[in-house]
Amino acid sequence: MPLVVTMGDPAGIGPELLLAAWRNRAEFGLPPFYVLADPDVMRTRARDLAIHVGVATCTPEEVEQCFASALPVVTLENRADTRSGADAPASPDAVVEAIATAVAHVKAGLATGMVTSPITKKSLYAAGFKYPGHTEYLGALAATHWPDEPAAPVMMLAGPDLRTVPITVHIPIHAIPQAWLKERIIEVARITARDLETRFGIATPRLVLAGLNPHAGEGGTIGHEDETVSRPAVEQLRAEGIDIAGPLPADTLFHARARKGYDAALCAYHDQALIPVKTLAFDETVNVTLGLPFVRTSPDHGTAFDIAGKGIARPDSLVAAIRLADQLSRDHTR
Ligand SMILES: NC(=O)C1=CN([C@@H]2O[C@H](COP(=O)(O)OP(=O)(O)OC[C@H]3O[C@@H](n4cnc5c(N)ncnc54)[C@H](O)[C@@H]3O)[C@@H](O)[C@H]2O)C=CC1
Ligand SMILES: NCC(=O)COP(=O)(O)O
């Protein structure tokens, strides 16, 4: 069975990366996949960038026979604007339809797992989209399609030498202290430990928790949260048998020697988690959602409107996302 990939924001780099990934599928060693898209977007981008890739509309059942000769596209009901770049009109209905349809296809057994291409949050919010991003929307879709399975989506960025998990994600900096809750830390740590074991094959995952405050609060003298919230959470997790250390000062958590001491770093907020992993390996890192009853990966980067439609975007992270989704789908033990 193939993987399903969403086109992402049609104005971003997603469509050209998908064309490049299919064109070099043999070199990249990619498994069969199909794209949920408006085929006009894919054909227009291929023509504009002189990427000589055929785009074949098909059903998910026809992907296997189609994949060898053309990029298989399963057509969305909503049309999307074919222009690229920051000034192109948004296509929120098609963008959201692709995500929802991908989950439905996985549930229906038409695809083994899903990969999402980048979306821009701002135009989705303007159109009334109620979720911070894919991660939370996928949690809601999972609850609908798998009502008997708990869905608590957790974002993990997985690079060759570092995995990080932001405990708070797309919230403003001023809201982080209120969201820094013992229960939330415990839930994220449990899911991360379980999925590293069941999906990534790490027998006893070693976790570390980064401090919220500078120097992890310096014993409560630079902010109280690491003593009143982080430390009790770590103590409870250790009592449950989870191998976790912390809270540790975040500034010394990501250098090469420190990274050898853990399998994933749980971080207090978005940039604490994403800066180190993207700095170390922007082109190889993959965003993978833990805690779902299905496999979902994504490149680590966004829509890159500044280079969309110019033919210079690198497909590496998308390729890594497709490869990881394939591997996780094969190893899926839950
Ligand atoms: N998974 C997703 O759907 C994600 C979506 N986003 C969205 O993307 C939009 C743009 O976000 P930014 O912060 O500007 O980050 P971005 O990752 O889109 O771009 C940051 C910089 O990296 C470059 N870049 C990104 N991907 C590249 C690639 N494959 N090859 C070469 N250069 C590349 C861009 O040209 C830009 O200079 C935002 O609206 C954000 O919400 C951001 C991250 C993930
Ligand atoms: N910065 C990471 C990001 O925006 C990815 O979010 P999601 O759409 O995968 O939830």
Quick structural summary:
By secondary structure, the chain is an alpha/beta fold. It has helices spanning 14-23, 25-28, 39-48, 63-66, 92-107, 121-126, 134-145, 176-179, 182-198, 225-239, 256-259, 270-281, 316-331; strands at residues 3-6, 33-37, 55-57, 71-75, 114-115, 154-158, 163-166, 206-210, 243-248, 264-267, 286-290, 296-299. It has two domains: 1-153 and 294-334, Isopropylmalate Dehydrogenase (3-Layer(aba) Sandwich), CATH 3.40.718.10; 154-291, 3-Layer(aba) Sandwich (Isopropylmalate Dehydrogenase).
What would your notes on this structure say?
The chain folds into 2 domains: 1-153 and 294-334, Isopropylmalate Dehydrogenase (3-Layer(aba) Sandwich); 154-291, Isopropylmalate Dehydrogenase (3-Layer(aba) Sandwich), CATH 3.40.718. The longest helix has 17 residues, at 182-198. Helix content is 39%, strand content 16%. The chain has helices spanning 14-23, 25-28, 39-48, 63-66, 92-107, 121-126, 134-145, 176-179, 182-198, 225-239, 256-259, 270-281, 316-331, and strands at 3-6, 33-37, 55-57, 71-75, 114-115, 154-158, 163-166, 206-210, 243-248, 264-267, 286-290, 296-299. With 334 residues, the protein is α/β, with parallel strands linked by helices. Strands 3-4-2-1-5-12-11-6-7-10-8-9 form a 12-stranded mixed β-sheet, with helices on both faces. The structure holds 1,4-dihydronicotinamide adenine dinucleotide and the ligand NCC(=O)COP(=O)(O)O. Ligand LD2JLWAY binds at residues 133-135, 274, 287, 298. 1,4-dihydronicotinamide adenine dinucleotide is lined by residues 13, 118-122, 134, 287, 298, 301-304, 306-307, 313-314, 317.
